[in-house]
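ugh finaly. both done.
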Amino acid sequence: MLKRASEERIFDFDKKAVGCWMVVEDIGPVRPVRIFVTHEALSGIDPREVRDVDGSLSIFDKNRDRIEQAANTKFDDGKIEDWPHEGQPVIVLRDSDF
């Protein structure tokens, strides 16, 4: 199970996704996991929002609980990407994850 590491989130222009950190719950030492939500997935969550960086961040903020639940589902199912971010595991949330 993952839990929120901080309120910080950023738009990653290379990945065209909003990224945030979560951590594995009840495990020590702290084990971070990078979460990326693609721009397309965010646009699918709220198609009325403007499709730009600010719009993506706004959708992310308004739907963070839903996004974190989807990240938990992928993590619990072992669906981790095969490439690390800053040496840490990565979960990418796409349209199909919502």
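ok and the 2nd:
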Amino acid sequence: MRNHIMIAFLLVVGGWAFAAHNVTEEYINSLGAESIDQLMVAAALEDPDDVPVKIKAILRLGELKAKEAVPVLIDALGYGSETIIRVGGTRKIYTYQVRLVAAKALAQIGDERAVKALASRAYQDEDLIVKRAAVQALGMMGSKAKDKYVLTILYDLLDKTPDNGLVADICEALGKIGDKSSFVYLLRVTQGPYLNSVKEVAQKSITQIKWNEPNVFESDKGSSGSGTQTPYTK
């Protein structure tokens, strides 16, 4: 059954005000590039009751590759606590789903402004599926994620996580990013206590390293305005 959720869109664009809409999933999916401002309003909703529409709006912004929505989507990466919100004592809202789709949308858009926020989410989130989505998004960013802060976090995660799925995602992302500082970390995976399928991912990623490009830790890339580079800061 379709969820019909009433959302009050009060948006002023070019002097015109848009009134309330009775929003369905079909309505969200029908919106095009001309409605990005409306979608951004929906993606920024905070009420737990609006989570289904918030998710659809985020997904649509990703499909539209709406670069202007990147700040809103970065905010959505941190939506909700790590616990389930109970609505009216009878229904559960899983806020991790918002963070999950925000990571996917940012990956689709591919704007490098999102890489540090994605890395922070990969490190900080308590939900494994969100961690993996953030790491996968960084991989989709490719060379745009070639950043000291991002790689520091990925290396730290790789050393700490016992989850084979997350290890495989990190190895794949490192291959797509291609920084030669990744070699030693990927090599450790090929020799470590991981599934053979994970070791194969690490081996493939080693072949993707761009040996002719500078090591990001030996260059100035990613250092400007970053401050202290630790996994605990955005």
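summary for the 2nd one i guess: The radius of gyration is 19 Å.
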